[in-house]
Design a protein that fits this description.
about 220 residues; alpha/beta; Rossmann fold; eight-stranded mixed β-sheet; globular
């Protein structure tokens, strides 16, 4: 799969984790919206759909904030050539007067929703609701704000783990599922990661464990 990075409102500047991640993933491409300041879901989805259809092979969409809503809309429209999606700190659709009913359908691809417990753009409770509506895995990022530059997320090694987990080959039953570090490590090279830190799996990286529909860190206690 080819990583396709989709920023949120106002784009992702040079200090943002998405820009850092793009440099780690040598095969990645980036969606460019005509106007990053206008939250127009239909227009954003149309641009993303074009990039997916004209890209190389299946896309692994890596979206942030409002970009997650565009990614969800495109996948739910049945757009081909989307292999997986990483949805980081989605913005709440209600903040943009988008009815839940428009996006509340299960995704037909493997996906991880990364949620922060103090995100001003979506509560953790709403993120849990959306992970269930979409049928995707939930990764508890703890108290990480909106997972952007303001919250200190420039270089963000967790993103590499999550991408690698989604990029692993399909199982014999045809399903791709997030997995543990032993499986994910072998797939960094296939994504063109140029210089993974700490030999690929350092102490800062989470161990991904399935628990119902959640991915939880085994190295810390989850608290409300």
């Amino acid at each position: 799969m080819t990583p396709l990075i989709l920023p949120g409102l106002n784009g992702s500047g040079h200090a943002h984790w998405q820009t850092w991640l793009g440099k780690q993933l040598a095969t990645s491409t980036r969606v460019e919206q005509p106007d990053w300041a206008v939250a127009d879901l239909d227009r954003w989805a149309a641009v993303l759909r074009t990039d997916v259809l004209t890209g190389r092979g299946d896309a692994l969409i890596i979206a942030h904030s409002f970009g997650c809503l565009a990614a969800i809309d495109v996948v739910q429209s049945g757009c081909p050539h989307v292999g997986a999606a990483l949805l980081v700190a989605p913005a709440d659709p209600s903040r943009f007067e988008i009815p839940d009913a428009r996006l509340a359908k299960r995704l037909a691809i493997p996906a991880i929703l990364v949620a922060s417990r103090n995100d001003p753009w979506m509560s953790f409770e709403r993120a849990t609701f959306w992970s269930r509506q979409l049928g995707c895995w939930l990764f508890d990022a703890g108290c990480s704000g909106h997972i952007n530059v303001a919250s200190g997320h420039g270089p963000w090694p967790d993103a590499l783990d999550l991408v690698a987990a989604l990029a692993r080959p399909s199982r014999s039953d045809g399903q791709r599922r997030p997995t543990d570090r032993a499986h994910g490590h072998a797939h960094f090279a296939s994504l063109g990661i140029s210089n993974p830190e700490n030999d690929g799996w350092g102490r800062r990286r989470p161990v991904l464990l399935p628990h119902d529909n959640e991915l939880v860190r085994s190295d810390r206690e989850n608290t409300n």
